[in-house]
Design a protein that fits this description.
Catalyzes the attachment of tryptophan to tRNA(Trp). With about 325 residues, the protein is mainly alpha-helical. Helix 4 crosses helix 8 and helix 8 crosses helix 9. Helices cover about 55% and strands about 5% of the residues. It is globular, with a radius of gyration of 21 Å. The chain starts with a strand and ends with a helix. The longest helix is centred in the C-terminal third of the chain and has 30 residues.
Amino acid sequence: MKIFSGIRPTGELHIGNYLGAIKQWIELQEKNECIFCIVDLHAVTTPYKSGELQKNILELAVAYLAAGLKPEKCVFFIQSEVKEHAELAWLLGTFTPLGELYRMTQFKEKSKKHPEYINAGLLNYPLLMAADILLYQTEAVPVGLDQQQHVELTREVARRFNKKFGKVFVEPKSLLPNVGEKIMSLQNPKKKMSKTDHPQGCIGLFDTPEEIKKKIMSAVTDTGKQIRYDEKKKPGISNLLTIYSLFSEKTIKEIEKKFEGKGYAEFKKSLANLLIDSLAPFQRKKQEFLSREVYIKEILEQGKRKAQILAQTTMQEVKKKMGLS
């Protein structure tokens, strides 16, 4: 099965990114034809520091590899280095109704969050995402629930093109993780984990043991003392149980039984130790890769060349069908 996914280089990865996306990609690369991309063109649609973008891209590449991505088993590259992404996005925009873009939830949310930065790129973000996916004849896209609407629009765009100009595109499906697609903030368990919203509510993939312990011990819990999963009545402890379950590979029921009659402090201490042990290999690998910048750049260059061949093949068909060649 052909898989495509990407992530924006907007800062250090956290455990929500890992559990909701990267862990799934690492499993998918073993038995599928996978294309993974650092989507820097998407990153410039919201406020960013241009002087830090290249550093963020390199750090994200290191993070992907440290987390277990294998360049020999997937295509791994930087989006802006394959010009067909922007070219196809423009062409898709020529027949996509404006109303469909205004209805996108992410456009509404980002517009509220950055009212001073509402731009045409933000509105056209879903078209660029559709181009990312459709360029590679993608069959499935691993996404969280918040991105599912974009995949549905991509399917609609593919159908519309195929009907109007002739069959070129595959209609991709969403590939949702079974659990962990939404890890919540440690400080506000009703909000998704995000470094920009609340740094203390977010465990970075490369946080030090001291930072992890401090963040877990100060995590918001709920009234009462029982360690029990109840998303509505006990969102704080439920979020911590989900994290514990995913890193320990034990069921929530097993964890509840383990901590029956015990307090929040003991549970949190155990979770902090589990995270410190689980993330230690990533941190060691990160240090190794950071000292091999030339090697990282060579991996990205090889990925770019492979992606260009695939993207150019699709664009030749698109242009022919649209009468542009």
